[in-house]
Amino acid sequence: MEALNIRHFKLMNGEEIIGLVAIKNDDNFIIERPVRLNPSMLGGVQFVAWFPFSDAKQFKVFKSAILQHVPVAESIKETYVNFSLKMDKPIQTVQTKTDQELLDEYESRLAAGHDLFDEEPLNELDKKRTLH
Questions:
Q1: How far apart are CA 120 and CA 36, in angstroms?
Q2: Displacement of CA 44 from its chain's centroid (Å)
Q3: Are 122 and 131 in contact (CB under 8 A)?
Q4: What is the pTM of this model?
Q5: Which residues pair with 10 in a beta bridge?
Q6: For 1, 36, 93, 128, which has the most beta carbons within 10 A of its beta carbon?
Q7: SS3 88
Q8: Rounded distance, CA 2 to CA 115, Å?
Q9: What is the DSSP code string of 102-130?
Q10: How many of the other CB atoms lie within 10 Å of CB of 35?
Q11: Which domains can be identified in the chain, with CATH numbers?
Q12: Is residue 46 packed enough to be buried (19+ CB in 10 Å), middle (13-18) or exposed (0-12)?
């Protein structure tokens, strides 16, 4: 792991990414398998694919778009490598519904006595109870 040049980049647009530097050119870096750092609600961060709907593995980042970059700690390297290897799995598509379709579905579920997210109908006590 020590030989891997995995760096943390702070971009001018505010994004933070981690990636394996494959090539360092005069005006850009070629970065393999970059991941974006998303802040979590509990103060940590989570890795997210930088271009989740692309099969590309290498991306060019111009030095003019980089505010700062540093090598990552060994423990982060291991986490990054494990995450990036999982990104090789095929992307599963999700069938989306329009807002109107969702609204119609929710209205029909409520009219039938169902909770919006549960499969079981609400019992009479649940229908009368007000939650705040």
A1: 39
A2: 14
A3: no
A4: 0.65
A5: 16, 68
A6: 36
A7: coil
A8: 53
A9: HHHHHHHHHHTTB-SS-SSBPPHHHHH--
A10: 21
A11: 6-86 (2.30.30.100)
A12: exposed
